[in-house]
Amino acid sequence: MSNYMGVTGMFGKRETAVVVLRDADAIAESIRAALADASEAERPGLERAAALVAAAAEGGDAELRARWVRRRLADAGYEGELDAVAAVKSLRQAEPGLSLVAAVQLTKEAAAT
User: Fold this and answer.
1) Which end of the chain is flanked by fewer CB atoms within 10 Å, N or C?
2) What is the CA radius of gyration of the chain?
C-alpha cells in the first residue's frame, strides 16, 4: 500500500518519473501495536483499520497507479473515459510536471486495470 504517490524528478527535458512508495508493512505494524494496548472501545475501529490496510496492500503497482490516476482525475472533476484524450489532458493539468508520454501510459493502464 502507498500513502503517497506523486511525480518526482526529471529524467530528461520531457520525461518525468512516477514513483510508487509502499509502506503497508509499517502501517500494519503500527496498527497491530495499537491493538495490543487498545481498550475495548478502540478495538473495533483498529481492527477495521487493519483490515483496510491488508486489503489495500494486496494490489500490485499497476493497480496502485490506476487508483492514483482515478483519484487525481476525480479531484480534477474529470468523469469521462480513462483512456480518452480528455483524461490525458486533465491528468496533465492536475500534475503539470507529468510528460505527455507518461500521462498517456498512466491513463491507458488505469483504463485497463
Assistant:
1) C
2) 17
Cα 70 to Cα 111: distance, rounded to the nearest angstrom: 9
Residue type, 51: A
Longest dimension (CA), the chain: 56
Query: C-alpha grid cell for residue 1?
Result: 500500500
Contacts of 50 (CB under 8 A, 6+ apart): 28, 31, 32, 35
0.70 exceeded by the pTM? no
Query: What would the DSSP string read from start to end of 24-43?
Result: HHHHHHHHHHHHHT--TTTH
Which cell is 102 given?
Answer: 507518461
Mean pLDDT of the chain: 83
